[in-house]
């Protein structure tokens, strides 16, 4: 325990003087002879006044005086440990991506150190190690009072990239030269070496030790993990993670989510004791797998624990159609043999006729030397291309003899070959791909040679439709947009008959890029810059890109490492249908390694479990006031000014004052929100924190005055004083019966509102298994009216704030249900509101004023909307449907105008 004003404790030695003053008696009276008084000498005295104050009353007054002195000195219970030394304090904070995993605990440890420095009157400075978002060079703040630094520390957030301790060392050396003299330092390290050859931790720690005592604060027992981009296999996604070695074996759960935050699958990666890596497979049907846009480690909110999946990880359905005769897949010579092996790792391959393939969802159709005579088959294929399909065709003797309209360019009759009419002296190689081609950036191997091809008729649009050329300039690949789709023609066969292109790795890369253009996904045309669309913060949450984020050229995207200029996230072409590419942090980071040993003499402090400081001053002063009130009462009793009846009446008051010093805060007249208690203490605490946070928000934003929320058990506790009841339904929630069901029905009948939360809808799907089934079971004995989704015109969306009908909480995207508007009972106020957005989780505030639960998919906007829904809910519960008339204001004004 510490004291904010310890100098006031000097008043404690004055207690003996107070004792002496309290024991002072008036001077002895002068004796005057008065014989008549002898007549009264033997009469009994009705009461006697003591010559001295009783010892117990003196002790009571001394205790009150001591409590006043102690209260004014402001003792603090559980103060944070002060840094070593007695000079200025330099606070060094690793604020890169690993620190996000336990950022609230780190912030609490740093704030505790500043509070301790403030009590000691020490100045402080702050140095962070992660590069700044605006790209400025790292530098430490100037020395300032510790109280002034607390606001700057509170605004600090982890960055979605690794620290640069070498740059921090340069900033430290510059700061030391400007502030000569010793200082103490507290280093909140993330416990990770961020470069293979070390990242400057040892030189940084040695410089701090040379200037004064160093305290190293780090988290104990927490493994720093990186989730790597998966490897796409024909029938699965291969997951992999890397971590600093952990002493114990464990399992890491990975969630697969869609773009709207819904969890579609969960995979478990085992990690052996002392292991640094783990792998697992995620098996999903192709239709479900293609919906996944994000993988994340469950329970870890860091940029390194999240991976975004773009088109490179999707397996698009591709149909393969060969010549009419059999043998299309014959090894080495079949026209589909090389196509199958080139596309199988990256696409869902389907074979058959044109009509059966078009009857299913298809992104790409590949025709290998397959002419299309006029008829229903060609018409259906043309419509499919117009609607957005991608048709890839390969030339051959049959197509050269019978070209059809579903080609990007007109073809000359016959083919160009060695020794033919349109001959060349030797096989032709490939020309470098143009910057405007989707193949830009791919190497052109010298060993690739073309011996035969079909030629395109020259024309004004031939150059614009050419994606690849031979060394002599003749087109090798041409393409044309048709409606919402496109047609691509390789002017050679799909096997090795006319060229050795199918035998090269370039053939695979070219096919992958063409397939990636399908289904409305625009291609990265050459070096076209990809602008930042959404970027991650240090917690792995997506949000608007910061102002300093820049675009990345498409042909340099693969080699770009995330940083302040290019944060991890989504990049692409703005607008509907534009390409989106994922820039993942873990793809460019080495495997995390444990931090090197600090210099000798370094003190250690564990991060986490920092006790919340409690100011005992107000409680001690309140106790002193109670003792003084008791002293006054006892003094009046001693003087005979209070009778026996008054004493008996005052006794319960004293007991109540002594047992509840903060009685004024718990007056039963205060409006409070209730919640149904469960058998899960952790769940009840989460709900309580949520309602505390909501009550505080309502008190600050409105004229309402809410007290502390109260846990109730229907059927046992009185619900009549509560306007709103929050009820979380889980798979284990018992069905109310008897008195409990009757109490809930009476509560709704008398005007109360029950908010039922299943905590598993929308982006929270999968977080509360069994809750939906339990909802039907639990509500069966309740008199719930017919329900309908919340409409944009419902009073709940405008009772205080104007809100969309989605009404998000910790989760978003689910449906919220209220009673139908035509039910006029209870003035059209819905007695029940049902949803699954975990509003209490979004409202929750811990003892330090932080929001302990992240909103999903995330963003400050979603939490703000959750709080605003809470305000609307409270206003709806307190005032009913009074704003229902305002919904019709436009119609009323129009009628008055007429």
UniProtKB/TrEMBL annotation:
Domain DUF4159: 672-878
UniProt-listed InterPro entries: Aerotolerance_reg_N, Class_I_gatase-like, Double_TM_dom, DUF4159
Domain Aerotolerance regulator N-terminal as annotated: residue spans: 1-75
SUPFAM superfamilies associated with the record: Class I glutamine amidotransferase-like
UniProt cross-references to NCBIfam families, sorted A to Z: two_anch
Protein name: LytTR family transcriptional regulator
Species per Swiss-Prot/TrEMBL record: Teichococcus aestuarii
Highest classification ranks of the organism: Bacteria, Pseudomonadati, Pseudomonadota, Alphaproteobacteria, Acetobacterales
């Amino acid at each position: 325990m510490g004291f904010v004003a310890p100098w006031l404790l000097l008043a404690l030695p004055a207690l003996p003087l107070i004792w002496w003053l309290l024991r002072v008696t008036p001077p002895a009276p002068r004796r005057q002879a008065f014989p008549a008084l002898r007549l009264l000498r033997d009469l009994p005295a009705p009461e006697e006044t003591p010559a001295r104050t009783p010892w117990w009353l003196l002790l009571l007054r001394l205790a009150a005086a001591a409590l006043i002195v102690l209260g004014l000195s402001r003792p603090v219970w559980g103060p944070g440990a002060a840094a070593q030394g007695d000079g200025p304090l330099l606070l060094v904070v690793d604020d890169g991506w690993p620190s996000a995993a336990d950022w609230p605990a780190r912030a609490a440890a740093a704030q505790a150190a500043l509070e301790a420095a403030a009590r000691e009157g020490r100045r402080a400075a702050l140095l962070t190690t992660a590069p700044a978002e605006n790209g400025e060079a790292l530098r430490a703040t100037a020395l300032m009072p510790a109280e002034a630094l607390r606001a700057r520390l509170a605004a600090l957030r982890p960055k979605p990239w690794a620290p640069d301790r070498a740059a921090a060392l340069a900033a430290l050396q510059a700061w030391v030269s400007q502030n000569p003299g010793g200082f103490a330092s507290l280093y909140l390290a993330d416990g990770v070496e961020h470069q293979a050859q070390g990242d400057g931790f040892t030189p940084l720690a040695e410089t701090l030790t040379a200037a004064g005592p160093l305290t190293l604060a780090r988290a104990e027992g927490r493994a720093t993990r990186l989730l790597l981009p998966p490897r796409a296999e024909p029938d699965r996604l291969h997951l992999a993670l890397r971590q600093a070695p952990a002493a114990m074996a464990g399992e890491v759960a990975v969630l697969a989510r869609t773009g709207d935050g819904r969890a579609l699958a969960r995979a478990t990666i085992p990690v052996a004791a002392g292991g640094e890596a783990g792998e697992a497979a995620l098996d999903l049907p192709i239709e479900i797998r293609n919906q996944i846009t994000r993988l994340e480690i469950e329970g870890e909110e860091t940029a390194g624990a999240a991976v975004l999946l773009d088109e490179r990880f999707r397996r698009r359905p591709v149909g393969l159609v060969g010549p009419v005769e059999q043998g299309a897949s014959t090894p080495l010579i079949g026209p589909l043999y090389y196509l199958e092996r080139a596309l199988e790792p990256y696409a869902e391959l389907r074979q058959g006729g044109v009509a059966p393939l078009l009857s299913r969802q298809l992104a790409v159709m590949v025709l290998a030397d397959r002419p299309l005579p006029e008829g229903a088959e060609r018409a259906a294929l043309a419509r499919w291309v117009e609607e957005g399909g991608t048709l890839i065709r390969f030339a051959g003797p049959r197509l050269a003899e019978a070209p059809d309209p579903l080609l990007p360019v007109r073809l000359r009759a016959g083919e160009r070959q060695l020794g033919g009419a349109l001959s060349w002296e030797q096989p032709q190689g490939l020309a470098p791909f143009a910057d405007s081609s989707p193949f830009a950036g791919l190497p052109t191997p010298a060993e690739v040679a073309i011996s035969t091809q079909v030629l395109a008729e020259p024309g004004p649009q031939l150059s614009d439709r050419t994606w690849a050329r031979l060394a002599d300039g003749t087109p090798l690949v041409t393409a044309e947009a048709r409606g919402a789709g496109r047609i691509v023609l390789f002017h050679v066969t799909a096997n090795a008959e006319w060229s050795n292109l199918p035998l090269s790795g370039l053939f695979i890369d070219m096919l992958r890029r063409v397939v990636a253009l399908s289904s409305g996904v625009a291609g990265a045309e050459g070096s076209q810059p990809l602008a930042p669309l959404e970027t991650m913060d240090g917690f792995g949450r997506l949000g608007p890109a910061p102002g300093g984020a820049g675009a990345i050229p498409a042909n340099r995207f693969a080699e770009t490492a995330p940083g302040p200029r290019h944060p991890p996230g989504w990049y692409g072409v703005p607008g509907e249908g534009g390409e989106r590419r994922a820039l993942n942090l873990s793809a460019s980071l080495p495997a995390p390694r444990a931090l090197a040993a600090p210099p000798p003499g370094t003190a250690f402090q564990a991060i986490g479990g920092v006790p919340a400081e409690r100011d005992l001053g107000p409680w001690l002063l309140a106790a002193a006031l109670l003792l003084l009130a008791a002293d006054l009462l006892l003094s009046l009793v001693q003087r005979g000014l209070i009778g026996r009846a008054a004493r008996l009446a005052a006794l319960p008051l004293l007991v109540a004052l002594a047992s509840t010093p903060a009685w004024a805060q718990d007056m039963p007249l205060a409006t409070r929100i209730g919640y149904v208690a469960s058998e899960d203490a952790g769940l009840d605490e989460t709900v309580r924190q949520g309602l505390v946070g909501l009550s505080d928000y309502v008190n600050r934003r409105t004229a309402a005055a809410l007290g502390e929320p109260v846990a109730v058990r229907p059927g046992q506790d009185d619900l009549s004083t509560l306007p709103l009841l929050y009820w979380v339904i889980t798979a284990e929630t018992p069905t109310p019966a008897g008195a409990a069901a009757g109490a809930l029905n009476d509560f709704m009948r008398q005007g109360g509102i029950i908010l039922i939360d299943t905590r598993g809808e929308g982006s929270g799907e999968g977080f509360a298994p069994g809750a939906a089934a339990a909802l039907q079971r639990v509500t069966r004995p309740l008199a719930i009216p017919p329900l309908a989704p919340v409409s944009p015109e419902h009073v709940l969306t405008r009772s205080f704030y104007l809100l969309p009908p989605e009404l998000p909480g910790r989760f978003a995207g689910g449906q919220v249900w209220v009673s139908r508007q035509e039910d006029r009972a209870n003035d059209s106020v819905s007695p029940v509101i049902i949803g699954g957005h975990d509003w209490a989780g979004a409202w929750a505030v811990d003892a330090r004023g932080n929001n302990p639960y992240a909103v999903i998919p995330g963003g400050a906007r979603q939490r703000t909307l959750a709080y605003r829904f809470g305000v609307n809910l409270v206003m709806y519960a307190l005032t009913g449907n009074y704003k229902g008339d305002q919904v019709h204001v436009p119609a009323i004004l129009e009628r008055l105008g007429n």
